[in-house]
Model the fold of this input.
Amino acid sequence: MCCTTAKWKREEVPDHKFDFVNVKDFYNGSIVRRFSYMFLFAVIIKNILVYTADLWTVFLLFTSEAWANNIKARKDINIEIAKWIFFVSIVCSFLLLLWELRKAVRVVKSRDIAYAYTCTGAYRFYSVRSYSHYCLFSQINNSRKKTDRVAFFCYFTLKGWKRFLLAEAPRQVVNGLALATIYINKGRFNITHFYETGDTLQARITFALMTFTFCIWAISAMLLAFAGILYIPLLCQIRGNLKEYVCHKIDKRLAQLLRNKSRKRI
Done:
């Protein structure tokens, strides 16, 4: 079954561009939709906080002992090596951000709806720019079969593997070892050790940021592992490129939505 040819083929549809679609037709003023729109902003704020934490960490790496004191809790970690692991990882994080922004700019210029949906930067740009754009994306997202839901989940989760491995994993392993030493005492987890991590406010802020970024990374690791497991049987079912399959499904869903809107006008 995995070796047979796919029964679908993705073809670009010229009409499926924002130039030819009135996004105001997809406006949805429901409370649920507005709440989900607010959640989008919460995710954006979370990402900003993560990058802010990265900048703060870079600042502390070379100007303060607060970061080093937290890492020193783990005696088998070489401070100098850990410092450069963090620095290189954070640089990779911002380089990947620039690459993603460059890609988002190209997608936005193309005006292609399917590509905008699959590009996180373009998706957020259009959604923040206009609530109606977000409603269009949400309606594309609404009606999907179980296989399509799995495909979308796998695609959007696995597409972040570069950031996970290059920008996050190395430093979060160091973070995790240090946090385990601080939080776990004599085999027992004790959250109150947070208040014993330093005598200064700067030291406590540093430790809080270490904990925050590690928790975000741990959740990402679990989601990535789950998506990887699901991807194997999914590949046998779609028998083709995952991104092309997702774009194909978006085009089909958008065509259906446009037909429905056309019938309502008649």
Q: What stands out?
A: The longest helix spans residues 201-238. The beta strands are 184-185, 188-189. The radius of gyration is 22 Å.
